């Protein structure tokens, strides 16, 4: 006998799982979310783009996140590969596509804690892993690590790259690795970032500074994501804070003046993963349970939130047609809506990353030709910006721009 019966069980309490659970609860489903909440500060942040901000605005969560996040008005890319065909620097300004900012950057653990608080008020949040899950006719039966059981008509697998739910649903995953580690850190620095994120493209991958909000007397702060070889990561991991800050300062050419670490750093091995399908009978995959790639161009969680928004729309629509929303057939619109976007991001990030790692001259030439084109051709640059922050095709309802207020006509004014 189940201890709890709900419409939908969300497995995983990371940013994707908590966001899914809140959105589904707000859509009127009874929801339980089970997973451990990662409260560690490890220098990781997420840059959330316009469509993700619209999503959190639609859920009423943006007011609690806004003052914790720093706006990203410009993104600059600098070729630091020392390649024979050096690429020009390119700066993308949100104002070119009619936005005040591309999005906003927030610390991962801060975002997750805020989402957890909102989830606690809206649904049954169980801070406990799922030990096992069985797929049965008409629903799933999950046993939590504390021995309790939850029965649901649908399970949303948001339990990360090693997803237990995905493997119990017999959905195949293909994984690969990159010869890189992403070092992450929060930095306090001398000069203001002016809401500009700067990406230095090096031979081992990008080294990116992303604006952060000031805090506790630290007026100028940024986060760092620096992709490097395993050997360099091992050497830098052994450095003291001062020496590491000095190496970061050198790598970014002193762009933001003197730097100091603000808290613990993280070191994350880079990998990729894609799945054979996004849905099964009684199961839908979202977030890193469904796709994984290195953190280039800040795509991971933004893609995951598009998964979540599309899934909410699919199950809402199935329910409004009076259908059982957990069947493979009812979930098909979700799979169809997400395939292209996921494959485009996974392959695009893979290509860009490999083009940096390659010292093969024609690859360098192509990469720098791309940079030249983006620097020189306005419409191309604007198309790339729109694709990066809003994506092509129809966005799900939760990411549509708010309806414009009608201006009162003179006759009625
Ligand atoms: C260095 C770095 C920088 C990044 N920067 C950006 C960025 O700027 N913008 C962006 O959009 N993305 C970025 N990303 C990607 C983004 O951080 C991830 O996509 C996102 O955090 C993944 O969220 P998730 O909820 O899918 O997975 P996770 O955060 O891995 O959450 C999975 C959850 O499942 C739980 N779990 C695991 N097993 C079980 C189980 N058996 N039962 C229940 N729960 C379980 C875990 O405890 C965890 O809570 C970055 C990634 C990295 C590595």
TrEMBL record:
Its cofactor is FAD. It comes from the Bacteria. GO terms for molecular function: FAD binding; monooxygenase activity; oxidoreductase activity, acting on paired donors, with incorporation or reduction of molecular oxygen. Pfam families: FAD_binding_3. PROSITE patterns: PROKAR_LIPOPROTEIN. Residues 5-313 form the FAD-binding domain. Residues 393-413 are annotated as: Disordered. One of its GO terms (biological process) is ubiquinone biosynthetic process. Keywords: FAD, Flavoprotein, Monooxygenase, Oxidoreductase, Ubiquinone. Pathway: Cofactor biosynthesis; ubiquinone biosynthesis. InterPro entries: FAD-bd (IPR002938), FAD/NAD-bd_sf (IPR036188), UbiH/COQ6 (IPR010971), UbiH/COQ6_monooxygenase (IPR051205). Residues 403-413 have a biased composition (Basic residues). Belongs to the UbiH/COQ6 family. This is Ubiquinone biosynthesis protein UbiH. It comes from Methylocella silvestris. The lineage of its organism: Bacteria, Pseudomonadati, Pseudomonadota, Alphaproteobacteria, Hyphomicrobiales.
């Amino acid at each position: 006998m189940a201890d709890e019966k709900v419409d939908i069980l969300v497995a995983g309490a990371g940013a994707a799982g908590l966001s899914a659970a809140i959105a589904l609860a707000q859509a009127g489903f009874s929801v339980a979310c089970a997973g451990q909440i990662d409260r560690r500060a490890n220098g990781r942040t997420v840059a959330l783009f316009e469509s993700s901000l619209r999503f959190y605005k639609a859920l009423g969560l943006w007011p609690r996140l806004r003052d914790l996040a720093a706006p990203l008005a410009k993104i600059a890319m600098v070729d630091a590969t020392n390649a024979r065909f050096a690429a020009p620097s390119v700066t993308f300004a949100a104002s070119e596509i009619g936005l005040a900012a591309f999005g906003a950057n927030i610390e991962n653990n801060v975002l997750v804690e805020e989402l957890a608080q909102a989830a606690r008020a809206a649904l049954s949040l169980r801070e406990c892993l799922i030990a096992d899950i069985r797929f049965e006719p008409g629903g799933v039966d999950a046993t939590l690590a504390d021995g309790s059981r939850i029965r649901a008509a649908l399970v949303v697998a948001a339990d990360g790259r090693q997803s237990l739910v995905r493997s119990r649903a017999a959905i195949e995953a293909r994984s690969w690795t990159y010869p890189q580690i992403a070092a992450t850190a929060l930095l306090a620095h001398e000069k203001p970032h002016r809401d500009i994120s700067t990406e230095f493209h090096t031979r081992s991958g990008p080294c990116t500074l992303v604006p952060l909000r000031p805090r506790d007397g630290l007026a100028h702060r940024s986060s760092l994501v620096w992709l490097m070889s395993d050997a360099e990561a091992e050497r830098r991991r052994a450095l003291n804070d001062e020496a590491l800050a000095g190496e970061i300062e050198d790598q970014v050419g002193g762009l933001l003046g003197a730097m100091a670490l603000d808290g613990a750093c993280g070191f994350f091995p880079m990998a990729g993963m894609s799945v054979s399908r996004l849905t099964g009978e009684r199961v839908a995959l979202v977030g890193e349970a469904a796709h994984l790639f290195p953190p280039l161009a800040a795509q991971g969680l933004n893609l995951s939130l598009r998964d979540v928004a599309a899934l909410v729309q699919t199950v809402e629509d199935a329910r409004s047609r009076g259908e059982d929303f957990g069947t493979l057939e009812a979930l098909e619109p979700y799979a169809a809506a997400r395939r292209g976007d996921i494959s485009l991001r996974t392959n695009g990030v893979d290509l860009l990353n490999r083009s940096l790692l390659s010292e093969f001259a024609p690859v360098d030439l192509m990469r720098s030709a791309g940079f030249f084109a983006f620097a020189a051709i306005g419409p191309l640059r604007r198309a790339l910006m729109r694709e990066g922050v809003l994506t092509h095709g129809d966005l799900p309802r939760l990411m549509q721009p708010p309806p414009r207020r009608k201006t009162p006509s003179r006759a009625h004014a």
